[in-house]
Amino acid sequence: MNQARVSPSLSVIAFVALTSLAASLALTGCKPSEPITDTAASASTPVSSAPAPHPAPSTSSADPRPILLCFGDSLTAGYGTDLGQSYPDDLQRNLDAEGYHSRVINAGISGNTTKDGLDRIARVLARHPQIVVVEFGGNDGLRGLPLDQTKANLSSILAQLQASNITTALAGITLPPSYGPDYIKKFDAMYPALAKQYHIRFLPFLLKDVYGVPGDMQEDATHATAQGNQQVARNVEALLKPLLKK
C-alpha cells in the first residue's frame, strides 16, 4: 500500500469489503442535508433498536470544551449503526473516561467524495474546531475518479484547515486489487505524501484491526459494526493522543 505497508491479508480483505462498497454506494449516496452531529450531546443517548439519523447539534455555547471534529464519509458517519454507535461517539466516550478535555463533533456524510468534502469545508471552518480528523477518498477510488483531482481536493481541504490554524490529522483507506496495480499504487501513495507535505499525523488504514475480525464488519463487508467502531475509535484516539490535553 503506502508507507504504512498494509499486509497482503488486508489487501485481500479490502478487495472483498471495498468491492461490496461499490454496490452499497447506490444505497448510501450523497446526503448533503445530513446534519453535523455533536457526539458530546448524543454519546450518552440510549441506543435505539433501528438505525436513526443523528440529531443536529444544539446551537448553545454551554459546552466550552475545544472541538475535535471528525470529517469524512460513511465510515465516519457511522452508516448502518444506531444512534450513538459511530466511531466519533465512541471516541467521545473514551476521551471523557480518560479525562481529556474535548468535545467530539461527527461531520461524516455517507457517500461523500473528496469534492463533497471540499464543498463542505467552509461549514467545518465555521465551527472553529481545535482538531480535525480528515477521512475521505474511498468513494473517489471506487468510482475511478482521476487521482490528480482527488489528491488536489484533499490537499485543498488540508491547506484550508491549516490556514485557519486548525490542528489536522489524516486517515487513509485502500482499494481492491481489481482496480489495477498502477491505480492502487498511486491511490495508496496519496495519503502519506499529503501527510508529509502538511506535516500532520497520519493513520494509514482507518479500519486497522477491524477488517477480518468476527463481529467487527457489517454484512456489506464495508462498514464497521458498533463493535468495530469501538476499535476504530481506539485507532483514532491513539493517533490523536499526542495532540490532546486533559
Can you offer a commentary on this structure?
The chain is an alpha/beta fold and 246 residues long. It has a single domain, classed as Rossmann fold, CATH 3.40.50.1110. It has nine helices and six strands. The protein has helices at residues 8-28, 39-42, 74-77, 87-97, 114-126, 138-142, 147-163, 181-198, 226-240, and strands spanning 37-38, 67-72, 103-108, 131-135, 167-171, 201-203. Strands 1-3-2-4-5-6 form a six-stranded mixed beta sheet, with helices on both faces. α5 runs parallel beside α7 and α7 packs parallel to α8 (181-198). It is globular and about 50 Å long.
Helix-strand sequence: HEHEHHEHEHHEHEH
Sheet having the most strands: 6 strands, mixed
- CATH topology, what is it called? Rossmann fold
Q: State the CATH architecture.
A: 3-Layer(aba) Sandwich
CATH superfamily: SGNH hydrolase
Terminal residue distance:
35 Å
| Number of individual domains | 1
Strand order of the largest sheet: 1-3-2-4-5-6
Q: Compute the number of strand runs.
A: 6
Uncertain spans, ≥5 residues at pLDDT below 50?
Answer: 1-34, 43-60
Output the CATH class name: Alpha Beta
- Please indicate the percent range of residues in DSSP E strands (runs of 2 or more): 5-15%
Structural class determined from secondary elements: alpha/beta
| Rounded Rg | 17 Å
**Helical segment tally?**
9
Q: How confident overall, as mean pLDDT?
A: 82
Categorize the overall geometry.
globular
Tell me roughly what share of residues is in helical segments.
Answer: 40-55%
